[in-house]
Amino acid sequence: MTSTGDLPCSVLMCALISMHIGPWSKWIFLKIRLIDDTLQNTVCKKKKKKKASSNAGTFSVSWKQNWNFTYAGNFGGLAYSCCCKPFSNFPSENGWIFPFALDDCGDYTGGEKPRSAPSNGLGLQESSAAVAAQDLTDAPVGHLKYAVLSGCAIIVRGQPRGGPPPERQINLSNIRAGAMARRAAQAQPDTKDTPDEPWAFQAREFLRKKLIGKEVCFTVEIKTALGREYGMVYLGRDTTGENIAEVLVNEGLATVRREGIRGNNPEQARLCELEDQSKASKKGMWSEGGGAHTIRDMKYTIENPRNFVDSLHQKPINAIIEHVRDGSVVRALLLPDYYLVTVMLSGIKCPTFKREADGTETPEPFAAEAKFFTESRLLQRDVQIILESCPNQIILGTILHPNGNITELLLKEGFARCVDWSMAVYTQGAEKLRAAERSAKERKVRIWKDYVAPTANLDQKDRQFVAKVMQVVNADAMVVKLNSGENKTIHLSSIRPPRIEGEEKNKDKDKRFRPLYDIPYMFEAREFLRKKLIGKKVNVTVDYIRAATGPGEGTPAFAERTCATVTIGGINIAEALVSKGLATVIRYRQDDDQRSSHYDELLAAEARAIKNGKGLHSKKEVPIHRVADISGETQKAKQFLPFLQRAGRSEAVVEYVFSGSRLKLYMPKETCLITFLLAGIECPRSSRNMPGGMQVAEPFSDEAMLFTKELVLQREVEVEVESMDKAGNFIGWLHIEGLNLSVALVENALSKVHFTAERSAYYKTLVSAEEACRLRKEKIWANYEEKPVEEVVHVSEEKERVANYRPVYVTEISDTLHFYAQDVETGGQLESLMETMRAEIAAQPPLEGSYSARRGEYCIAKFADGEWYRARVEKVESPAKVHVFYIDYGNREIVPSTRLAAIPPAFSTRNLPAQATEYAFAFIQIPQDEDARADVVDCIVRDIQNSQCLLNVEYSGVTCPLVTIQFGDTKDDVGLGLVKEGLVMVDVRKEKHLQKMVTEYLNSQESAKSARLNIWRYGDFRADDADEFGYRR
């Protein structure tokens, strides 16, 4: 049999929930307090049913023969149901207390109630409250003592179930404590701050220290029409505990409300008795003096918060947490000066409550849970606060509790995320915060429930590995060689290399931009990484992979980038770079998790660099690197050649490797870039663009280039310059750590010995290395077949000079006494080509200004005579200044790009090679004196320019063949004539087959000296230090 009864409105229900160890032991204590003296039917009667209404809500109770109760109720919109069995009953003065074991109880499903309208239900119904003493690191259990509003009002909360529990305010019956200080309403400027009443703060503090973190039990006696509840609170689990109202009255911290006291109420009588005793003992407010000394001097505002924070020097100060706005923002009362300040936790941010236009607040996901987490651990607790910084009037600090650090706990439990802007000021170690956040991410708790790690798709071997650094790319990337032999480009995480911004970016548009030298501190950053990393093994930890991006407005396209933290010897390279002011740290959006795993260390390093004014943050003038690039600049290369030859071994850095034997070097002493060719070897040629099309790579060319790269790229080397070729490339020997690169290539069967090595000191070493590889038939010698010995013919050193003069037409003579000449035999082809080209251009004239000149390209240029000629671009200073070389005539000119056009394919050098060939005079030396040289040039121009002569090649030179030239009519030697007139000196050659010519020239020189002609007019100047006089022997 089961009966259901509805209790009358005069019945109030109070419930106590306490959590005990073990998953099954939950208990509910129901206390039925009967206010009316008349009960039509008692609860204890079986099979009776009554209905009534209560301002606390509606409920119904059913029971069975064995006293099993079924309870269902609704209080303040919070629905609960439970089944209970009584095991004993305890009589009470005003009713009965029935303890029940809870078999099943529904979870709390409502939201948190605002404190201005407290919930009518605390877990189940009006109850004796249990406050479980809690560790900061554990979740609160049972009904918690939540906050003390004043000396006679407290707020309690229930056990959290599926969310923050509801709260309930209980006012102590029959007593009154002093009102606490209250700040004037900000919206009402006419109002003033209300100070404490005497002994109000002491009463609140007494109650706070006695109750916070303790179990309490309470009964509700009266509930007003406005919902305010008055009752009694006992320390402990039941009403046998210490009566809090009595303790307050006994200590002289509260007065008894004597109006309306019933003579038959022993509780009220007891309070009056205690008050009389307190007065007699002069305790608390009954002491002499009136209590003016107990009124606090509250300070709600601080004129200069930054100075206030700095004056504390980051020392811990005592405080009481008075209010929690959200999980990471609290209002604290600083002791002993009573400053009431708002403190934001340094380094983190919790979900917040967004205020809508209508004034309501909408919580972000987990905002209420984060707030409850902080409230349940800190609210009205004694703590210590370290005030760390005050940016933009916001006080940042760290709250220290004896049981832990709330900042780290919020992160660990997934209630907060790290924020970079305040992380730098956190004094307890930013790495702890990152570690706590990382733990929450790995467990995917709360705000990280949908978190996906940036490297989640990578295997462990791809996330962390050891690699060898092969090349540094600018200042934020490097090429590393993996254990598998594969090369991989790695970008340093979260840093940005030096760059040009603003007006500097648009400056010198006409100048060819070279980032390494033109961007301030880029060269220093690259050199720092190069010296520290090149050729060494490093530890790589991949932090994230930045996806490829397409080009947008004003933004270039980027390929996929692997961003990692690189360390060597325990040193974070990115951090070292930032600390020296050679890079900056990238700032991210708060929700952007793709960043360095050591991001906080990078921010701290940047802060140190800014403070010390290093590198990019220095106020000094930026360093300027004037580096001359003389690659392909024949004239400049000729000027540098003597210096490099006399210097012997010079220091250099290999900037680029074009092929196995062709490199670009940076000469730090000379501050120039040169193209360097390895002497004495013939290396397989790589594929490259040629005027006639793409040149196919020779076998083992890629292997040779890779070998050279791994050995010398971006390393410091020594070079010996011997000569240069006609393109302005220097030729010589390169040494790295005592190893000759030419010899190394030959030893590894990646190059052959060139005949020009015969005159070098390394010839025997090269030949023996080549012979060993040839016998092993390695690489380039794999298909080698040795020729029969009898086929080797010994070349006699006694060969005679061959005189094979051919007719040429001299078109141009330079200041260095080099001249250009056309072969008379092919002159007809040139004339035909020019006529056809000009006719085609006249029919289809090029669009003026449509051609964009690039160095090394072939084009057509309009000369001063208005005709178009074939040319090659040598240098582009600006669109208005383009240096061109007329390939069929040998003269040079500076023209605007509007006088240039693309060369028609039918008239390119593939159909007819350039007709102007460069030559120099054999057997003569040009005077160094400018006036003397000008005399020689004038004489040659007058005699042979634009005339047909006879030319014979005598021997090869550094940049061009050296020849003797005869007048077309008289057959007289032009060079010999210069010697006879005393205009030049003789260049003595050692080749035996040329001795006859050399002797003739020397005899003519002696005759000129005897006659004191021209340069010999003061005698033989060579007897003195020739260099002082501008001549050389």
From TrEMBL:
Task of the protein: Endonuclease that mediates miRNA decay of both protein-free and AGO2-loaded miRNAs.
Localization per record: Cytoplasm
GO molecular function terms noted in the UniProt entry: 3' overhang single-stranded DNA endodeoxyribonuclease activity; RNA binding; RNA endonuclease activity
InterPro entries named among the record's database cross-references: Silence_cplx_Nase-comp_TudorSN (IPR016685), SNase_OB-fold_sf (IPR035437), Staphylococal_nuclease_OB-fold (IPR016071), Tudor (IPR002999), Tudor_TDRD11 (IPR047386)
Name of the molecule in the record: Staphylococcal nuclease domain-containing protein
Domain named Tudor: residues: 852-910
A Gene Ontology biological process term: mRNA catabolic process
PROSITE patterns per UniProt: TNASE_3, TUDOR
Pfam families documented for this protein: SNase, TUDOR
EC id: 3.1.31.1
Root EC class: hydrolase
TNase-like domain span: 148-288, 315-450, 463-619, 648-783
A single cellular component GO annotation: cytosol
Keywords noted in UniProt: Cytoplasm, Repeat
Reactions listed under catalytic activity: Endonucleolytic cleavage to nucleoside 3'-phosphates and 3'-phosphooligonucleotide end-products
Primary localisation category: cytoplasm
